[in-house]
Amino acid sequence: MASIESVMQEGRRFRPPESFRARAKLKDAADYERLYRQSLDDPEGFWGAVANELHWFKPWERVLEWEEPFVKWFVGGQTNLSYNCLDLQVERGRGDKKAILWEGEPGDTRTYTYRELLAEVSKLANTLKGLGVGKGDKVAIYLPMIPQAVIAMLACARIGAVHSVVFGGFSSAALADRVNDARAKVIITADGGYRRGSVFALKPLVDEALERCESVEHVIVVRRGENDVQMQPGRDRWYHELIESASDVCPAEPMDAEDPLFILYTSGSTGKPKGVLHTTGGYQTYTYLTVKYIFDLRDDDLYWCPADVGWITGHSYIVYGPLLNGVTQLMYEGVPTHPAPDRHWEMVARYGVTIYYYAPTAIRAFMKAGEEYPKKHDLSSLRLLGTVGEPINPEAWMWYHRVIGGERCPIVDTWWQTETGGIMITTLPGVHDTKPGSAGKPFFGVDAAVMDLEGNEQEAGSGGYLVIKRPWPSMLRTVYGDDDRYRAQYWSEIPHVYFAGDGARRDDEGYFWIMGRVDDVVNVSGHRLGTAEIESALVSHPAVAEAAVVGRPDEVKGQAIVAFVTLEGKREGSEALYQELRAHVTKEIGAIARPDDIRFADALPKTRSGKIMRRLLRNIAAGEEASGDISTLEDKGVVEKLLRPGVSR
Ligand code: WTA
Predict the structure, then answer these.
(1) Pick from 220, 253, 286: which residue ends a domain?
(2) 491 and 392 co-located in one domain
(3) ipTM of the complex
(4) Both 471 and 487 in a single domain?
(5) Which helix H or strand E contains 550, and what residues bound it?
(6) Where does Mg(2+) bind (predicted)?
(7) Whose CA is nearest to atom 14 of ligand 1?
(8) Which of 102, 125, 541, 613 has the most CB atoms around it within 10 Å of its CB?
């Protein structure tokens, strides 16, 4: 926890630069206070007015219905996200404005105006309809970062199909679990995509997954990697062949405000990943407003969020939020370090990117690569920077501010989650001073607090659990197919508040300092993973008897994965077994979950009641002294053995 201590002692602060403030949408603390007050005192009035900035087929009857833990927003209203992202923008005169400037890793490019994007989306929407996909049907999307990923999501939204995007780095087993949980009828995938200079295959993984997915009737395959794939007649079709004959006109389906928009799987502290369900009207209203104010959009901005659409950041801040605001954005297929560590900076300079929003883990990696890489390029087009997904340490923040932002760009450190749908805590770039390491203040409508487990609000300066005291428009509606888990996970830890699963502290100016997860979730390079998932992947290997996975602080990744395993029978740990287990986890989940370290142990430290003492393992993994009470430890010898050199692989 050393890094958290240093964050809490951070005293630096930065005012929004005058040049930025002069043109900002919101400039004064009073603007923020007034709107924030209004959003809490009169949520109906506040959110009703925001929602009305978008198009509705039918007005709502009530803005909000709250019956803990279930919420409905814009009850009775009908709208369509795809309409608001595309048709509405064309109606507002943005038909010829560029929506997406896309660049592949090899350097090939494509651009889409709003009008062209509307046509492409309509073609795919008609194609899906032709395959029998309708309102409420589930469509899995397993694609690289190519324009078709955005097109596929919008095509689903257009006809009322519910998309479930599965990150292209997940394994076939992880894909199969997600497809089966949602009972997806169609999968949209690609032959492969580019990553680090070569093609990674996707379609063969789909074939493997489909050996255990019965719900899937059709597979649509985008040609991208040109790698060899097998097409199963009757089931698999090429995207380009299908859309060739499709009409480019497809009226958007009027959707009820509470109709499901998408399911996105994310990790919790127990069991399998859960399907976070988001719906239509509230999600669109909230993501629209967050982009408008937090990125302080102007019509001539070039916005870039290099995340992947497989994560919530891609859903809300590549696809829906930016398009709802009619922005031009850059989209890039590959890794930031290919062919050299300055790929992003070279692109920022070449395209003239004005807003750049990415993960702290990447910033730390850029920092490590050296400032000579960004220094080679003219980054003066940038006017605003953002971070998302994990805490940013003050050193990385300062580097970002100085080297990338030229000390001229405000940084928004945005705290939120898959479940929250949109950014919840952040500074507003023209309004608030920033403090390196603090996410800032609650966004409009967000009633955030720090509590103890009894529900008492903590005084300024004291740590506790981050909670949200009332529903907001883009809140998850449930865990797909499991209302009980939804209630238990989010609305039961502390009575009557949304439990985020993060530790936090609020300072005397009301700024939040996020201290990381309080449950068994690790954040590795900005990827959220459940230790339970990795443990169950490990024990599914025949050599493993028991496994306990913990996070260890890591300079670049934030956290690294350390697994403690005991082996079956007389098996001994070895380098070969270490490699085999890493490969096994990659196969079960994906390379993002591959342990960085595996320690073979005789036994795991347990309490007398048989619970694995994770806190102790976290200490051991970090090379620290055991903190706290270990008197309940059943066999003290276990710990001594774990501390002895040689227990590692
Ligand atoms: C962490 C990503 C500190 C946090 C959008 C949260 C952060 C989890 C921040 C959600 C931030 C996200 N500062 N921690 N600015 N943003 N987190 O669902 O632990 O992938 O609970 O959503 O990431 O991860 P998820």
Answers:
(1) 253
(2) yes
(3) 0.99
(4) yes
(5) strand 544-554
(6) 539, 541, 544
(7) 390
(8) 125
Same domain, residue pair 499 and 448: yes
Count of domains observed in the chain: 3
What is 164-231 written as a DSSP string?
EE--TTB-HHHHHHHHHHHT-SEEEEESEEEETTEEEE-HHHHHHHHTT-SS--EEEEE--S------
Feature table: binding site for ATP: 389-391, 413-418, 502, 517, 528
Does 148 fall in a domain?
Answer: yes
- 236 and 286, same domain (yes or no): no
Q: Do the domain assignments include residue 21?
A: yes
| Predicted pLDDT of residue 3 | 47
Look at the alpha carbons of 29, 30, 35, 36 in this order and tell me if their dihedral is positive or negative.
positive
Mark whether 536 and 568 lie in a shared domain.
yes
Residues facing 412 on adjacent strands? 386
Domain with 622 in it: 525-643
Asked whether 385 lines ligand 1 (CB < 6 A), one says no
Residue nearest atom 8 of ligand 1, based on CA coordinates: 417
**8-state DSSP, 532:** H
Cβ of 501 closer than 6 Å to ligand 1, yes or no, is yes
pTM (predicted TM-score) = 0.96
Report which of residues 639 and 490 the model is more confident about: 490
Tell me, using a 6 A CB cutoff, whether residue 504 lines ligand 1: no
What atom in ligand 1 is closest to the CA of residue 418? 18
Integer Rg of the chain from CA: 24
Does 318 share its domain with 438? yes
- In short, whether 410's Cβ falls inside 6 Å of ligand 1 is no
State the pLDDT at residue 1. Answer: 36
The ligand 1 atom nearest the CA atom of 501 = 21
In the chain, the N- to C-terminal Cα span, in Å, equals 25
Q: Is residue 222 part of a domain?
A: yes
Per residue in 113-159, pLDDT tens? 999 999 999 999 999 999 999 999 999 999 999 999 999 999 999 99
CA of 518 to the centre of ligand 1 (A): 12
Is residue 649 over pLDDT 80?
A: no
Ligand 1 within 6 A of CB of 519: no
Rounded to 10 degrees, the C-alpha dihedral 134/136/139/141 comes to 120
Mode of pairing for the β-strands spanning 498-506 and 512-517: antiparallel
Same domain, 174 and 313: no
Distance CA 36, CA 131 (A): 46
Please indicate whether residue 434, judged by its CB atom, sits closer than 6 Å to ligand 1. no
Weakest-pLDDT range from 322-331, 427-436, 589-598, 627-636: 627-636
Q: Is residue 88 part of a domain?
A: no
The answer to whether residues 184 and 200 touch, using CB atoms and an 8 Å cutoff, is: no
Tens digits of residue pLDDT in 8-62: 567 899 999 999 999 999 999 999 999 999 999 999 999 999 999 999 999 999 9
